[in-house]
Structure formats: C-alpha cells, structure tokens
Amino acid sequence: MSVVEQYARAHIVTDADQAEEERTAVPVVLRYDPEDDPRSVRFGLPDRHEWTFSRTLLEQGLRAPVGTGEVRVWPLGRVQAVVEFHSSDGVSVVQFESKTLLRFLRRTYMATAQPVSR
Q1: DSSP assignment, residue 20?
Q2: What does the longest C-alpha to C-alpha distance in the chain come to?
Q3: What is the pLDDT of residue 87?
C-alpha cells in the first residue's frame, strides 16, 4: 500500500464582498496514508491547521450534507463541494471542484486495493 498525496486548488470562502472571478485559489494538500490510518484522509491548508477526518465523511459529503464537530462536508450544486473546518481559531470554509475530491478518493481506494492472486 502506498501513500496518496494530491495537490489541489480551492477557494477559501469569506463574507468579504468579492466577485467569483476575484477570489484567488489556494493550494491544498490532500493526503492519505493507509499505513498510518486506512480510514482517514488529511487536508492541509496553507498557513493553517491540517485536519484529519474520516474518508467516509468526505465520500458521503459529496452526495449530501454530513458532519458535526470539526469537519462538515456538503455538495454545492453539481460541480462543487464545500468542506468546513472548525478549530479554536475559528472556521475555514473551503470550496473545491467535486471532481478533484472524487479523483482523490478514487486514488485512495486504488492504493488499498489488494492485487488479485492467480
């Protein structure tokens, strides 16, 4: 089993009055290490905390709103998803393209697939 690390671009959502095209994308590191914890994924935001949460939560959140506590995930229309991170420093709301998160999930499942023996 191998570590899956994927770099993604996402938008930090704020209540500031910004047009959609004015928002700048930030780099996010999506990481899955089946040796460390095969049930969890990690999201690292720039200059912010790294969150570790259930891979199942991410998968379910692409279809319907899920989560309580530190991490919540929900679909936003057909092509985007939102991941909301809560910490003692406040809340970070991050918007992704759904296909980016789906690609990452697919890679995590491929990393844990056992080879077929003949």
Answers
A1: G
A2: 60
A3: 83
Amino acid identity of residue 39, one-letter, is R
**Rounded-to-integer distance, Cα 47 and Cα 76, Å:** 25
- Dig out the tokens for 71 from the structure: 């991490």
Residue found under tokens 């499942």: 109
| Residues in the chain where the model's pLDDT stays below 70 | 1, 14-23, 48, 114-118
- Neighbour count for residue 60 (Cβ, 10 Å): 15
Please state, in angstroms and rounded to a whole number, the distance separating the CA atoms of residues 87 and 97.
23
> 71 with 83: CB under 8 angstroms?
yes
If you count them, how many residues does the chain have?
Answer: 118
Answer yes or no: are the C-beta atoms of 73 and 57 closer than 8 Å. yes
Q: Which helix (H) or strand (E) holds 103?
A: helix 98-112
- Which domains occur in the chain, in start order? 4-112 (2.30.31.20)
- With contact defined as beta carbons under 8 Å apart, do 52 and 29 qualify? no
